[in-house]
Design a protein that fits this description.
Layout lengths: L12 E10 L2 E3 L4 E2 H5 L4 H15 L4 E11 L13 H10 L11 H7 L2 H6 L5 E6 L8 E4 L21 E7 L4 H19 L11 H5 L33 E3 L15 E3 L9 H10 L3 E6 L2 E4 L1 H5 L6
Parallel strand pairs: 1-4, 1-5, 5-7
Antiparallel strand pairs: 2-3, 6-7, 8-9, 10-11
Length: 311
């Protein structure tokens, strides 16, 4: 059993979330929203499970709380002004074609309509999660605020009014918690890439670059890999590969001591192809300890949960 060195003297992280649920009415006569009409996953249950997974994955360090829930029963407007009708969307979904392109939501309109920027500025919540349906035009994650940077998508321009950086997550209630963890994983990758950008990628100095090594990119020198590539993956999403490779993933449980000897590993370590289990395994390797190296905290969750700390 792997034991964490996170201690009570290290402050837990508490973050408040503004939750927007886009659940357009599909059946006007019966006022049935998209979730119930298609019998898709309960968005509130997904959020609850996702929060619990992040708490577990961070060894109890990360604690998200939904501070406000906003339910929107209309289709949102896209950047080009297009708005689905229930009939149009139902026809597209039934035939799995004809979806509007470009499918890019008007973030400014949606967020301004619910005073999201002011609520972030005033500390009512720290970030926003949008739960929606397929083809809603959302990015998996996008950053707002002054000096925002790439967060699996270009930052949303003209959002300095928030007074600080914040992440807007986009989730799909047709999918599951595993896909939510993947979106959050890409957010983590973007923020940590930015955090370590000034550290040279030589002689193992850039620990983030070392963390994401996998055998295909660094033969014989795999570490934990990235959110798409496990240590032995040969292609994206190849989390069920039985091929054994030499990996140093277990050393990251001992961070910052990475001297443990590598071992032969395959998908038995990370869930035999299950998306949720792989992503939990990946997050459990994220350093979450006291101290710092090269001016960067040994608790990488500080940056993942608060991009303002990424300097």
């Amino acid at each position: 059993m792997v034991h964490s060195r996170f201690s009570e003297s290290q402050n837990p992280i508490y973050k408040k979330v503004g939750l927007i649920i886009l659940n357009p009415i599909i059946s006007q006569s019966e006022k049935i929203g998209m979730v119930d009409f298609f019998k898709w996953n309960n968005p509130l249950q997904l959020i609850s499970d996702f929060i619990a997974d992040l708490h577990y994955a961070s060894y109890g360090l990360v604690n998200y709380q939904v501070a406000e829930t906003i339910v929107v029963n209309q289709f949102p407007k896209f950047l080009d002004g297009y708005v689905y009708t229930a009939e149009e969307f139902l026809n597209c979904w039934t035939h799995q074609k004809g979806f509007h392109q470009p499918d890019k939501i008007d973030y400014h309109l949606l967020l301004a309509s619910h005073d999201i920027f002011n609520k972030i500025k005033n500390g009512i919540f720290d970030e926003t999660w949008i739960m929606a349906y397929p083809y809603a035009g959302l990015a998996e994650s996008i950053m707002v605020g002054p000096n925002s940077f790439w967060c699996n998508s270009l930052p949303l321009a003209n959002t300095n009014e928030t007074g600080r950086r914040a992440v807007i997550m986009g989730f799909n209630f047709e999918r599951g918690v595993g896909e939510m963890l993947e979106s959050y994983g890409h957010r983590a990758e973007s923020i940590l890439e930015y955090t370590f950008r000034k550290i040279p990628d030589k002689n193992n100095q850039n620990l983030w670059k070392r963390f994401i090594r996998y055998d295909r990119s660094h033969p014989g020198k795999a570490e934990v890999g990235n959110i798409h590539f496990a240590p032995n993956s040969l292609k994206d999403y190849d989390w069920g590969n039985q091929r054994k490779v030499l990996s140093n993933s277990k050393a990251w449980y001992d961070f910052p001591d990475l001297s443990r000897s590598p071992s032969m590993e395959n998908c038995n370590e990370w869930g035999n192809g299950d998306i949720r289990l792989h992503h939990l395994w990946w997050f459990r390797h994220i350093p979450h300890f006291e101290g710092s190296l090269n001016g960067i905290s040994n608790n990488w969750w500080e940056f993942i949960t608060d991009p303002n700390k990424a300097k």
